[in-house]
Design a protein that fits this description.
Structural class: mainly alpha
CATH topology: AhpD-like
Number of domains: 1
Mean pLDDT: 90
Number of strands: 0
Oligomer: single chain
Radius of gyration: 18 Å
Length: 111
């Protein structure tokens, strides 16, 4: 499905990245795979919720798509998705406010 935000077909281009930078791609893929681990102390359902919340803070539309679908498959409810998204939004807003305090400090330091 294609939307005005992204094209799912773009993910197929990851194969090009793997071909042109195989060692780096392998390292990234291994890191990315920790979300789907089944033997961690954090159950898969919560791993996907965490990944989904982080994806909203990084604003990666592909990550949002992948982790929303994986979360549903792991038993996450639509209500839990909504709460995770809003928790991410609250933390992102908190970061903006904290950086706003820095702007106030830098303003006072300017000559």
């Amino acid at each position: 499905m294609t939307s005005h935000y992204h094209d799912e077909g773009d993910l197929k281009l990851l194969k090009d990245m793997a071909k042109f930078a195989p060692e780096d791609f392998k390292a990234w893929a291994n890191l990315d795979a920790i979300v789907g681990r089944e033997n961690g102390k954090i159950p898969r359902k919560y791993r996907e919720l965490i990944a989904l919340a982080v994806a909203h803070t990084t604003q990666c539309v592909y990550c949002i798509e992948v982790h929303t679908k994986n979360a549903k498959r792991a038993g996450v409810t639509k209500e839990e998705v909504a709460e995770a998204v809003l928790l991410a939004a609250a933390l992102r807003a908190g970061g903006a406010a904290a950086h706003g305090a820095l702007a106030m400090k830098f303003y006072d330091q300017a000559t």
